[in-house]
Protein backbone atom coordinates (compact mmCIF):
# COMPACT_ATOMS: atom_id res chain seq x y z
CA UNK A 1 0.00 0.00 0.00
CA UNK A 2 1.39 3.38 -0.92
CA UNK A 3 2.12 6.07 1.63
CA UNK A 4 -0.70 8.28 0.39
CA UNK A 5 -3.32 5.57 0.88
CA UNK A 6 -2.25 4.83 4.42
CA UNK A 7 -2.61 8.34 5.78
CA UNK A 8 -5.61 8.74 8.10
CA UNK A 9 -5.71 12.42 7.28
CA UNK A 10 -7.34 11.54 3.94
CA UNK A 11 -10.70 11.11 5.63
CA UNK A 12 -10.64 14.78 6.58
CA UNK A 13 -10.21 16.11 3.08
CA UNK A 14 -12.96 18.02 1.34
CA UNK A 15 -14.76 16.50 -1.67
CA UNK A 16 -12.66 18.61 -3.99
CA UNK A 17 -9.42 17.56 -2.36
CA UNK A 18 -10.39 13.91 -2.37
CA UNK A 19 -10.42 13.90 -6.16
CA UNK A 20 -6.86 15.16 -6.33
CA UNK A 21 -3.75 13.04 -6.01
CA UNK A 22 -2.05 13.17 -2.61
CA UNK A 23 1.56 12.22 -3.19
CA UNK A 24 3.49 13.98 -0.41
CA UNK A 25 3.16 14.88 3.24
CA UNK A 26 2.19 18.48 4.01
CA UNK A 27 5.03 20.98 4.07
CA UNK A 28 6.19 21.74 7.59
CA UNK A 29 8.49 24.42 8.90
CA UNK A 30 11.71 22.70 10.14
CA UNK A 31 14.29 23.97 12.65
CA UNK A 32 17.91 22.85 12.78
CA UNK A 33 18.31 19.97 15.22
CA UNK A 34 21.20 17.88 16.58
CA UNK A 35 21.94 14.43 15.10
CA UNK A 36 20.58 12.71 18.23
CA UNK A 37 17.37 14.74 18.15
CA UNK A 38 17.01 13.96 14.49
CA UNK A 39 17.32 10.21 15.10
CA UNK A 40 14.76 10.33 17.92
CA UNK A 41 12.31 12.25 15.74
CA UNK A 42 12.76 9.78 12.89
CA UNK A 43 12.07 6.82 15.18
CA UNK A 44 9.01 8.46 16.73
CA UNK A 45 7.69 9.37 13.28
CA UNK A 46 8.27 5.86 12.01
CA UNK A 47 6.47 4.23 14.96
CA UNK A 48 3.62 6.74 14.68
CA UNK A 49 3.26 5.91 11.02
CA UNK A 50 3.28 2.15 11.72
CA UNK A 51 0.70 2.58 14.48
CA UNK A 52 -1.55 4.57 12.18
CA UNK A 53 -1.18 1.97 9.42
CA UNK A 54 -2.05 -0.90 11.79
CA UNK A 55 -5.03 1.02 13.14
CA UNK A 56 -6.38 1.61 9.64
CA UNK A 57 -5.81 -1.97 8.57
CA UNK A 58 -7.44 -3.32 11.72
CA UNK A 59 -10.38 -0.96 11.36
CA UNK A 60 -10.92 -2.02 7.78
CA UNK A 61 -10.90 -5.68 8.79
CA UNK A 62 -13.36 -4.96 11.60
CA UNK A 63 -15.89 -3.42 9.20
CA UNK A 64 -17.61 -5.03 6.26
CA UNK A 65 -16.29 -2.21 4.09
CA UNK A 66 -13.19 -1.74 1.98
CA UNK A 67 -11.48 1.51 2.91
CA UNK A 68 -9.67 1.54 -0.42
CA UNK A 69 -11.12 0.29 -3.67
CA UNK A 70 -9.05 -0.68 -6.69
CA UNK A 71 -10.34 -2.34 -9.84
CA UNK A 72 -9.85 -2.44 -13.58
CA UNK A 73 -12.40 -1.59 -16.22
CA UNK A 74 -12.41 -1.09 -19.99
CA UNK A 75 -13.27 2.24 -21.56
CA UNK A 76 -12.62 4.53 -24.48
CA UNK A 77 -10.95 6.94 -22.06
CA UNK A 78 -9.51 6.62 -18.55
CA UNK A 79 -10.00 9.35 -15.93
CA UNK A 80 -7.47 11.14 -13.75
CA UNK A 81 -9.92 12.18 -11.03
CA UNK A 82 -12.77 10.44 -9.21
CA UNK A 83 -15.34 10.82 -6.48
CA UNK A 84 -18.02 8.68 -4.91
CA UNK A 85 -21.60 9.87 -4.87
CA UNK A 86 -21.58 9.22 -1.10
CA UNK A 87 -19.17 12.14 -0.66
CA UNK A 88 -21.98 14.43 -1.72
CA UNK A 89 -24.51 13.11 0.75
CA UNK A 90 -26.12 10.29 -1.26
CA UNK A 91 -27.73 7.50 0.75
CA UNK A 92 -28.28 4.12 -0.91
CA UNK A 93 -31.28 2.93 1.08
CA UNK A 94 -33.77 2.90 -1.83
CA UNK A 95 -35.89 5.56 -0.11
CA UNK A 96 -33.83 8.76 0.15
CA UNK A 97 -34.06 10.94 -2.96
CA UNK A 98 -30.50 11.62 -4.16
CA UNK A 99 -31.09 13.94 -7.12
CA UNK A 100 -29.16 16.82 -5.56
CA UNK A 101 -26.26 14.58 -4.60
CA UNK A 102 -25.85 13.27 -8.16
CA UNK A 103 -26.12 16.78 -9.61
CA UNK A 104 -23.55 18.13 -7.15
CA UNK A 105 -21.13 15.27 -7.78
CA UNK A 106 -21.30 15.66 -11.56
CA UNK A 107 -20.94 19.45 -11.32
CA UNK A 108 -17.87 18.98 -9.14
CA UNK A 109 -16.26 16.48 -11.52
CA UNK A 110 -17.01 18.67 -14.53
CA UNK A 111 -14.20 20.94 -13.28
CA UNK A 112 -11.72 18.30 -14.39
CA UNK A 113 -12.94 17.94 -17.98
CA UNK A 114 -9.83 19.68 -19.33
CA UNK A 115 -7.37 17.99 -16.95
CA UNK A 116 -7.93 14.26 -17.33
CA UNK A 117 -11.68 14.01 -16.80
CA UNK A 118 -13.67 12.67 -13.88
CA UNK A 119 -15.29 9.40 -12.80
CA UNK A 120 -18.32 9.23 -10.52
CA UNK A 121 -18.37 5.97 -8.58
CA UNK A 122 -21.72 4.56 -7.45
CA UNK A 123 -21.09 1.94 -4.76
CA UNK A 124 -23.29 -0.96 -3.72
CA UNK A 125 -26.75 0.17 -2.67
CA UNK A 126 -30.12 1.22 -4.02
CA UNK A 127 -29.86 4.84 -5.11
CA UNK A 128 -33.20 6.56 -5.68
CA UNK A 129 -32.93 9.71 -7.79
CA UNK A 130 -34.73 11.94 -10.22
CA UNK A 131 -33.31 12.80 -13.63
CA UNK A 132 -29.75 14.08 -13.92
CA UNK A 133 -27.48 15.40 -16.66
CA UNK A 134 -24.03 14.16 -17.61
CA UNK A 135 -20.99 16.21 -18.58
CA UNK A 136 -18.06 15.87 -21.02
CA UNK A 137 -14.94 13.78 -20.35
CA UNK A 138 -16.91 11.95 -17.71
CA UNK A 139 -17.55 8.36 -16.62
CA UNK A 140 -20.50 7.13 -14.56
CA UNK A 141 -19.44 3.80 -13.03
CA UNK A 142 -21.81 1.43 -11.19
CA UNK A 143 -20.62 -1.21 -8.74
CA UNK A 144 -21.97 -4.69 -9.44
CA UNK A 145 -24.38 -4.37 -6.52
CA UNK A 146 -25.39 -0.80 -7.29
CA UNK A 147 -28.93 -0.09 -8.50
CA UNK A 148 -29.98 3.33 -9.74
CA UNK A 149 -33.72 3.68 -9.13
CA UNK A 150 -35.68 6.24 -11.11
CA UNK A 151 -38.11 8.24 -9.02
CA UNK A 152 -41.76 7.31 -9.51
CA UNK A 153 -42.87 10.84 -8.66
CA UNK A 154 -43.50 12.56 -11.98
CA UNK A 155 -42.65 15.90 -10.35
CA UNK A 156 -39.04 14.73 -10.38
CA UNK A 157 -39.06 14.58 -14.19
CA UNK A 158 -38.73 18.02 -15.86
CA UNK A 159 -40.24 18.77 -19.24
CA UNK A 160 -38.22 19.45 -22.37
CA UNK A 161 -38.77 20.64 -25.90
CA UNK A 162 -39.69 18.20 -28.68
CA UNK A 163 -36.90 16.90 -30.87
CA UNK A 164 -36.63 19.08 -33.98
CA UNK A 165 -36.73 16.06 -36.31
CA UNK A 166 -40.04 14.96 -34.74
CA UNK A 167 -41.87 18.27 -34.47
CA UNK A 168 -43.53 17.40 -31.19
CA UNK A 169 -43.57 14.62 -28.64
CA UNK A 170 -43.85 11.14 -30.09
CA UNK A 171 -47.00 10.45 -28.08
CA UNK A 172 -48.55 13.89 -27.56
CA UNK A 173 -48.59 17.27 -29.34
CA UNK A 174 -46.64 18.97 -26.55
CA UNK A 175 -43.13 18.41 -25.31
CA UNK A 176 -41.67 15.41 -23.54
CA UNK A 177 -40.43 14.39 -20.13
CA UNK A 178 -36.64 14.50 -19.97
CA UNK A 179 -34.80 11.20 -19.86
CA UNK A 180 -33.67 9.65 -16.59
CA UNK A 181 -29.99 9.97 -17.55
CA UNK A 182 -29.48 12.72 -20.10
CA UNK A 183 -26.64 14.48 -21.87
CA UNK A 184 -26.41 16.98 -24.71
CA UNK A 185 -23.53 18.61 -26.59
CA UNK A 186 -21.04 16.30 -24.92
CA UNK A 187 -17.70 14.82 -25.92
CA UNK A 188 -16.26 11.64 -24.43
CA UNK A 189 -19.02 10.42 -22.10
CA UNK A 190 -19.13 6.90 -20.64
CA UNK A 191 -21.82 5.02 -18.71
CA UNK A 192 -20.44 1.70 -17.54
CA UNK A 193 -19.93 -0.59 -14.58
CA UNK A 194 -19.49 -4.13 -13.35
CA UNK A 195 -22.99 -5.09 -14.51
CA UNK A 196 -24.66 -2.67 -12.12
CA UNK A 197 -28.34 -1.93 -12.72
CA UNK A 198 -30.33 1.09 -13.83
CA UNK A 199 -34.03 0.58 -13.15
CA UNK A 200 -36.48 3.03 -14.71
CA UNK A 201 -39.35 1.67 -12.57
CA UNK A 202 -41.57 2.25 -15.57
CA UNK A 203 -44.75 0.70 -14.22
CA UNK A 204 -46.24 4.02 -13.16
CA UNK A 205 -45.65 5.41 -16.67
CA UNK A 206 -47.08 2.36 -18.41
CA UNK A 207 -50.24 2.60 -16.30
CA UNK A 208 -50.70 6.29 -17.07
CA UNK A 209 -50.09 5.63 -20.76
CA UNK A 210 -52.80 2.95 -20.86
CA UNK A 211 -55.13 5.26 -18.95
CA UNK A 212 -54.50 8.07 -21.46
CA UNK A 213 -53.72 10.47 -18.63
CA UNK A 214 -50.34 11.75 -19.84
CA UNK A 215 -50.17 15.16 -21.52
CA UNK A 216 -46.56 14.73 -22.62
CA UNK A 217 -44.43 11.97 -24.11
CA UNK A 218 -42.91 9.50 -21.68
CA UNK A 219 -39.19 9.72 -20.88
CA UNK A 220 -36.40 7.45 -22.09
CA UNK A 221 -34.10 5.72 -19.64
CA UNK A 222 -30.88 7.02 -21.26
CA UNK A 223 -30.69 9.71 -23.94
CA UNK A 224 -27.49 11.21 -25.34
CA UNK A 225 -28.01 14.05 -27.83
CA UNK A 226 -25.72 16.14 -30.08
CA UNK A 227 -22.70 14.29 -28.72
CA UNK A 228 -19.70 12.29 -29.90
CA UNK A 229 -17.50 9.55 -28.45
CA UNK A 230 -20.16 7.82 -26.36
CA UNK A 231 -19.81 4.48 -24.56
CA UNK A 232 -22.60 2.56 -22.80
CA UNK A 233 -21.39 -0.83 -21.58
CA UNK A 234 -21.50 -3.61 -18.99
CA UNK A 235 -24.81 -2.71 -17.39
CA UNK A 236 -28.28 -4.13 -16.90
CA UNK A 237 -31.05 -1.71 -17.85
CA UNK A 238 -34.52 -2.41 -16.53
CA UNK A 239 -38.11 -1.23 -16.98
CA UNK A 240 -37.69 1.92 -19.03
CA UNK A 241 -40.74 4.21 -19.11
CA UNK A 242 -40.38 4.49 -22.92
CA UNK A 243 -37.44 3.72 -25.25
CA UNK A 244 -34.50 2.43 -23.21
CA UNK A 245 -31.33 3.76 -24.90
CA UNK A 246 -31.78 6.66 -27.33
CA UNK A 247 -28.65 8.16 -28.89
CA UNK A 248 -29.80 10.97 -31.17
CA UNK A 249 -27.96 13.43 -33.45
CA UNK A 250 -24.71 11.84 -32.24
CA UNK A 251 -21.66 10.01 -33.61
CA UNK A 252 -18.94 7.55 -32.65
CA UNK A 253 -21.08 5.47 -30.29
CA UNK A 254 -20.31 2.06 -28.78
CA UNK A 255 -23.05 0.14 -26.94
CA UNK A 256 -21.57 -3.11 -25.72
CA UNK A 257 -22.18 -5.88 -23.23
CA UNK A 258 -25.51 -4.68 -21.89
CA UNK A 259 -28.69 -6.49 -20.93
CA UNK A 260 -32.03 -4.73 -21.39
CA UNK A 261 -35.12 -6.18 -19.72
CA UNK A 262 -38.75 -5.08 -19.73
CA UNK A 263 -42.04 -7.02 -19.56
CA UNK A 264 -42.98 -8.23 -23.04
CA UNK A 265 -46.33 -6.43 -22.78
CA UNK A 266 -44.89 -3.12 -21.58
CA UNK A 267 -45.73 -0.37 -24.10
CA UNK A 268 -43.02 0.98 -26.42
CA UNK A 269 -40.08 -0.18 -24.33
CA UNK A 270 -37.71 -0.39 -27.32
CA UNK A 271 -34.24 -1.61 -26.46
CA UNK A 272 -31.81 0.57 -28.43
CA UNK A 273 -32.92 3.30 -30.85
CA UNK A 274 -30.05 4.92 -32.79
CA UNK A 275 -31.70 8.03 -34.22
CA UNK A 276 -29.99 10.30 -36.78
CA UNK A 277 -26.63 8.89 -35.67
CA UNK A 278 -23.41 8.16 -37.54
CA UNK A 279 -20.78 5.54 -36.79
CA UNK A 280 -22.45 3.36 -34.17
CA UNK A 281 -21.50 -0.11 -32.91
CA UNK A 282 -23.96 -2.31 -30.99
CA UNK A 283 -22.58 -5.68 -29.92
CA UNK A 284 -22.92 -8.44 -27.33
CA UNK A 285 -26.35 -7.27 -26.26
CA UNK A 286 -29.27 -9.27 -24.82
CA UNK A 287 -32.74 -7.67 -24.96
CA UNK A 288 -36.18 -8.72 -23.74
CA UNK A 289 -38.65 -6.02 -24.70
CA UNK A 290 -42.23 -4.96 -25.18
CA UNK A 291 -41.30 -3.43 -28.52
CA UNK A 292 -38.49 -3.58 -31.10
CA UNK A 293 -35.19 -4.75 -29.64
CA UNK A 294 -33.30 -2.38 -31.94
CA UNK A 295 -35.21 0.35 -33.80
CA UNK A 296 -33.23 2.45 -36.28
CA UNK A 297 -34.71 5.93 -36.78
CA UNK A 298 -34.04 9.35 -38.35
CA UNK A 299 -37.00 11.66 -37.84
CA UNK A 300 -40.71 11.83 -38.50
CA UNK A 301 -42.39 12.98 -41.73
CA UNK A 302 -41.95 16.64 -42.69
CA UNK A 303 -39.87 17.38 -39.58
CA UNK A 304 -37.41 14.58 -40.32
CA UNK A 305 -37.24 15.55 -43.98
CA UNK A 306 -36.47 19.15 -43.02
CA UNK A 307 -33.87 18.20 -40.40
CA UNK A 308 -32.24 15.89 -42.91
CA UNK A 309 -29.91 13.88 -40.66
CA UNK A 310 -29.71 10.17 -41.58
CA UNK A 311 -28.66 7.21 -39.50
CA UNK A 312 -25.73 5.58 -41.26
CA UNK A 313 -22.70 3.41 -40.65
CA UNK A 314 -24.38 1.23 -38.04
CA UNK A 315 -22.97 -2.16 -37.01
CA UNK A 316 -25.00 -4.68 -34.98
CA UNK A 317 -23.28 -7.89 -33.83
CA UNK A 318 -24.17 -10.71 -31.47
CA UNK A 319 -27.60 -9.43 -30.56
CA UNK A 320 -30.09 -11.75 -28.86
CA UNK A 321 -33.70 -10.61 -28.82
CA UNK A 322 -36.97 -11.79 -27.29
CA UNK A 323 -39.95 -9.65 -28.27
CA UNK A 324 -43.20 -11.55 -28.98
CA UNK A 325 -45.01 -8.45 -30.30
CA UNK A 326 -42.29 -6.66 -32.28
CA UNK A 327 -39.10 -7.02 -34.29
CA UNK A 328 -35.54 -7.97 -33.51
CA UNK A 329 -34.36 -5.12 -35.75
CA UNK A 330 -36.76 -2.51 -37.12
CA UNK A 331 -35.82 0.10 -39.70
CA UNK A 332 -38.27 2.94 -39.16
CA UNK A 333 -40.98 3.80 -39.03
CA UNK A 334 -39.52 7.24 -38.29
CA UNK A 335 -36.98 7.19 -41.14
CA UNK A 336 -37.62 10.49 -42.91
CA UNK A 337 -34.01 11.65 -42.63
CA UNK A 338 -32.81 8.43 -44.24
CA UNK A 339 -31.25 5.14 -43.09
CA UNK A 340 -28.26 3.68 -44.90
CA UNK A 341 -25.31 1.32 -44.52
CA UNK A 342 -26.63 -0.86 -41.70
CA UNK A 343 -24.74 -4.10 -41.12
CA UNK A 344 -26.06 -6.84 -38.83
CA UNK A 345 -24.41 -10.22 -38.28
CA UNK A 346 -24.55 -13.15 -35.87
CA UNK A 347 -27.94 -12.15 -34.49
CA UNK A 348 -30.58 -14.32 -32.83
CA UNK A 349 -34.32 -13.89 -32.32
CA UNK A 350 -36.37 -16.17 -30.07
CA UNK A 351 -40.15 -15.99 -29.68
CA UNK A 352 -40.19 -12.70 -31.57
CA UNK A 353 -42.78 -11.34 -33.98
CA UNK A 354 -40.34 -10.69 -36.84
CA UNK A 355 -36.65 -10.87 -37.54
CA UNK A 356 -35.99 -7.80 -39.70
CA UNK A 357 -38.82 -5.35 -40.30
CA UNK A 358 -38.88 -2.26 -42.51
CA UNK A 359 -41.65 0.19 -41.59
CA UNK A 360 -42.57 3.23 -43.66
CA UNK A 361 -45.49 4.99 -45.36
CA UNK A 362 -46.49 7.70 -47.80
CA UNK A 363 -45.61 11.01 -46.20
CA UNK A 364 -42.39 9.71 -44.67
CA UNK A 365 -40.10 10.58 -47.54
CA UNK A 366 -36.51 9.65 -46.84
CA UNK A 367 -34.97 6.30 -47.71
CA UNK A 368 -33.87 2.91 -46.39
CA UNK A 369 -30.98 1.61 -48.46
CA UNK A 370 -27.84 -0.50 -48.34
CA UNK A 371 -28.98 -2.84 -45.58
CA UNK A 372 -26.88 -5.97 -45.01
CA UNK A 373 -27.73 -8.92 -42.76
CA UNK A 374 -25.89 -12.24 -42.46
CA UNK A 375 -25.82 -15.05 -39.95
CA UNK A 376 -29.33 -14.65 -38.55
CA UNK A 377 -30.96 -17.39 -36.45
CA UNK A 378 -34.63 -17.36 -35.51
CA UNK A 379 -36.83 -19.68 -33.48
CA UNK A 380 -40.60 -19.40 -32.97
CA UNK A 381 -41.48 -16.43 -35.11
CA UNK A 382 -44.61 -14.99 -36.69
CA UNK A 383 -42.63 -13.62 -39.67
CA UNK A 384 -39.00 -14.11 -40.58
CA UNK A 385 -39.04 -11.00 -42.83
CA UNK A 386 -41.49 -8.13 -42.92
CA UNK A 387 -41.63 -4.99 -45.03
CA UNK A 388 -44.56 -2.62 -44.62
CA UNK A 389 -45.16 0.41 -46.83
CA UNK A 390 -48.38 1.42 -45.09
CA UNK A 391 -47.36 1.89 -41.47
CA UNK A 392 -49.24 5.19 -41.03
CA UNK A 393 -48.86 7.17 -37.77
CA UNK A 394 -48.17 10.82 -38.65
CA UNK A 395 -47.22 13.68 -36.30
CA UNK A 396 -49.95 15.99 -37.59
CA UNK A 397 -52.02 16.86 -40.64
CA UNK A 398 -49.26 18.88 -42.28
CA UNK A 399 -47.29 15.96 -43.70
CA UNK A 400 -46.97 15.71 -47.47
CA UNK A 401 -48.69 12.55 -48.76
CA UNK A 402 -46.61 12.87 -51.93
CA UNK A 403 -43.39 12.42 -49.97
CA UNK A 404 -42.59 8.88 -51.02
CA UNK A 405 -39.99 6.81 -49.21
CA UNK A 406 -37.39 4.89 -51.18
CA UNK A 407 -36.49 1.34 -50.10
CA UNK A 408 -33.67 -0.28 -52.03
CA UNK A 409 -30.62 -2.50 -51.65
CA UNK A 410 -31.86 -4.90 -48.95
CA UNK A 411 -29.56 -7.91 -48.54
CA UNK A 412 -30.21 -10.94 -46.32
CA UNK A 413 -28.05 -14.08 -46.36
CA UNK A 414 -27.17 -17.18 -44.31
CA UNK A 415 -30.49 -17.43 -42.48
CA UNK A 416 -31.87 -20.31 -40.41
CA UNK A 417 -35.37 -20.05 -38.95
CA UNK A 418 -37.50 -22.65 -37.17
CA UNK A 419 -41.15 -22.84 -36.16
CA UNK A 420 -42.19 -19.88 -38.29
CA UNK A 421 -45.84 -19.02 -38.98
CA UNK A 422 -45.14 -17.04 -42.17
CA UNK A 423 -41.86 -16.76 -44.05
CA UNK A 424 -42.32 -13.17 -45.21
CA UNK A 425 -44.77 -10.38 -45.81
CA UNK A 426 -43.44 -7.81 -48.28
CA UNK A 427 -45.79 -4.94 -49.07
CA UNK A 428 -44.29 -2.04 -50.97
CA UNK A 429 -46.10 1.08 -52.13
CA UNK A 430 -48.15 1.20 -55.30
CA UNK A 431 -46.13 3.15 -57.85
CA UNK A 432 -43.17 3.20 -55.47
CA UNK A 433 -42.03 -0.44 -55.16
CA UNK A 434 -39.31 -1.64 -52.84
CA UNK A 435 -36.40 -2.70 -55.08
CA UNK A 436 -33.04 -4.42 -54.96
CA UNK A 437 -34.13 -7.11 -52.48
CA UNK A 438 -31.74 -10.07 -52.25
CA UNK A 439 -32.15 -13.16 -50.04
CA UNK A 440 -29.69 -16.06 -50.29
CA UNK A 441 -28.97 -19.28 -48.39
CA UNK A 442 -32.06 -19.10 -46.20
CA UNK A 443 -33.79 -22.14 -44.70
CA UNK A 444 -37.12 -21.43 -43.04
CA UNK A 445 -38.89 -24.31 -41.35
CA UNK A 446 -42.58 -23.65 -41.01
CA UNK A 447 -44.60 -24.20 -37.84
CA UNK A 448 -47.22 -26.98 -37.78
CA UNK A 449 -50.01 -24.39 -37.92
CA UNK A 450 -48.33 -22.07 -40.43
CA UNK A 451 -50.10 -20.17 -43.19
CA UNK A 452 -50.83 -22.05 -46.40
CA UNK A 453 -49.03 -19.36 -48.39
CA UNK A 454 -45.71 -18.73 -46.62
CA UNK A 455 -44.86 -15.66 -48.73
CA UNK A 456 -47.02 -12.59 -49.37
CA UNK A 457 -45.59 -10.05 -51.81
CA UNK A 458 -46.81 -6.89 -53.52
CA UNK A 459 -44.95 -3.96 -55.09
CA UNK A 460 -41.48 -5.43 -54.52
CA UNK A 461 -38.67 -6.48 -56.87
CA UNK A 462 -35.61 -8.60 -56.19
CA UNK A 463 -33.99 -12.02 -56.37
CA UNK A 464 -33.47 -15.06 -54.16
CA UNK A 465 -30.95 -17.90 -54.17
CA UNK A 466 -31.19 -21.14 -52.22
CA UNK A 467 -34.25 -20.12 -50.23
CA UNK A 468 -36.85 -22.49 -48.80
CA UNK A 469 -39.80 -22.50 -48.84
CA UNK A 470 -39.99 -21.18 -52.37
CA UNK A 471 -40.43 -17.38 -52.38
CA UNK A 472 -43.08 -15.44 -54.26
CA UNK A 473 -42.80 -14.81 -57.99
CA UNK A 474 -41.63 -11.22 -57.48
CA UNK A 475 -38.40 -12.64 -56.01
CA UNK A 476 -37.28 -15.17 -58.65
CA UNK A 477 -34.45 -17.66 -58.18
CA UNK A 478 -31.02 -16.58 -59.41
CA UNK A 479 -27.73 -18.16 -58.35
CA UNK A 480 -25.96 -15.56 -56.27
CA UNK A 481 -24.67 -14.67 -52.81
CA UNK A 482 -26.17 -11.50 -51.43
CA UNK A 483 -23.62 -8.81 -50.71
CA UNK A 484 -22.15 -8.07 -47.30
CA UNK A 485 -19.36 -5.46 -47.20
CA UNK A 486 -15.89 -6.73 -46.32
CA UNK A 487 -14.39 -3.35 -45.47
CA UNK A 488 -14.90 -2.32 -41.86
CA UNK A 489 -16.53 0.91 -40.75
CA UNK A 490 -14.66 3.61 -38.81
CA UNK A 491 -16.38 2.65 -35.54
CA UNK A 492 -14.61 -0.72 -35.64
CA UNK A 493 -11.35 1.16 -35.19
CA UNK A 494 -12.48 2.39 -31.76
CA UNK A 495 -10.83 0.28 -29.06
CA UNK A 496 -11.07 0.24 -25.28
CA UNK A 497 -8.23 0.90 -22.88
CA UNK A 498 -7.58 -0.88 -19.61
CA UNK A 499 -8.29 1.68 -16.92
CA UNK A 500 -7.48 1.35 -13.22
CA UNK A 501 -9.65 2.98 -10.59
CA UNK A 502 -8.11 3.75 -7.23
CA UNK A 503 -10.29 5.38 -4.64
CA UNK A 504 -10.75 5.59 -0.92
CA UNK A 505 -14.49 5.13 -1.41
CA UNK A 506 -16.60 2.54 0.37
UniProtKB/TrEMBL annotation:
Belongs to the glycosyl hydrolase 28 family. This is Probable polygalacturonase. GO terms for molecular function: polygalacturonase activity. Keywords: Glycosidase, Hydrolase. InterPro entries: GH28_Enzymes, Glyco_hydro_28, Pectin_lyas_fold, Pectin_lyase_fold/virulence. It holds the Pfam family Glyco_hydro_28. The gene is LOC115729115. It comes from Rhodamnia argentea. It comes from the Eukaryota. GO terms for biological process: carbohydrate metabolic process.
